[in-house]
Amino acid sequence: MIGVIGAGNMGMAIALRIKGKVFLSDKNKRISDNVTVAKRSDIIILAVKPQNIGEVLREIKPYVKEKLIISIAAGAATSSIEKVLGKARVIRVMPNMPAMVGKGISAVTRGRFAKPKDLKIAFGIFSKVGEVTEIKENMMDAVTAVSGSGPAYYFLFTHLLAKAGEASGLEKGLAMKLAKAAFIGAAETACRKDLSMEEFVKKVASKGGTTEAALKIFKSRKLESIIKQAVKSASLKSKSLSVSLHSDNVKV
Fold first, then answer.
1. Where exactly are the structural domains of the chain?
2. Could you tell me the CA-to-CA distances from 48 to 14, 102, 190, 226 in Å, in that order?
3. Global pTM value
């Protein structure tokens, strides 16, 4: 039996796509409480915010012996969870928002006491919400910054592109429709054609053409540097969340 603690967007997305009965809890206890879910489940998915995981671990600790713990809390290292729960079988996963429509990608790593079969179970669960890939845990902060936060970058750029279209005279609805379609179509093309991103850029940007004119602005304004700084900031934030789990401010 699978239990999901945390009924936010990601927790609900996972619960809805798991076949069979799933126990679900949320902080307001409108569905069930954490202890009940922990007692009744063989596999417990922690879909809570990083700042709440310490409290949740302390609450469920008496009821999770020999159970598989899967955490999707950003920044919460497997060693941090093991420190609270003891020799727990812990799998850490970083999914992303497109999991809500079955198009996500989840990075998975296992803790010190988790078995290969536990990793296989995690792959089985998260394959229901998209692709799954195994990584080393020391790469998880970077993964969080790229794929975990990545959808927000897409949404922001789509919004800004549509606004720029409006500024050039397009009707608001049409500008957004064009911006969405451009990115969705480009993503689908990238998945179907075996080309590098640089090669795709060259296919769109004819020498002396309109696209090249736009790309020159991106280059002159150092867009690449801005993106690197943003991803680095997100990665450092993920690291800081891991540190905070051990701090005196988080009771575990």
1. 2-139, 150-221
2. 13, 20, 33, 30
3. 0.88
Q: CA 16, CA 26: separation in Å to the nearest integer? A: 15
The CATH code of domain 2-139 reads 3.40.50.720
Cβ proximity of 122 and 91 under 8 Å: yes
Give the Cα separation of 13 and 98 in Å (integer). 9
Q: How far is CA 60 from CA 10, 44, 101, 235, 248, in A?
A: 20, 10, 30, 29, 20
Q: What is the pLDDT of residues 2-52, one digit of tens each?
A: 999 998 889 999 998 887 788 899 776 667 899 999 999 999 999 998 888
DSSP state for residue 16 in the 8-state scheme: H
CA 53 – CA 233 distance, rounded (Å): 22
Class of domain 150-221: mainly alpha
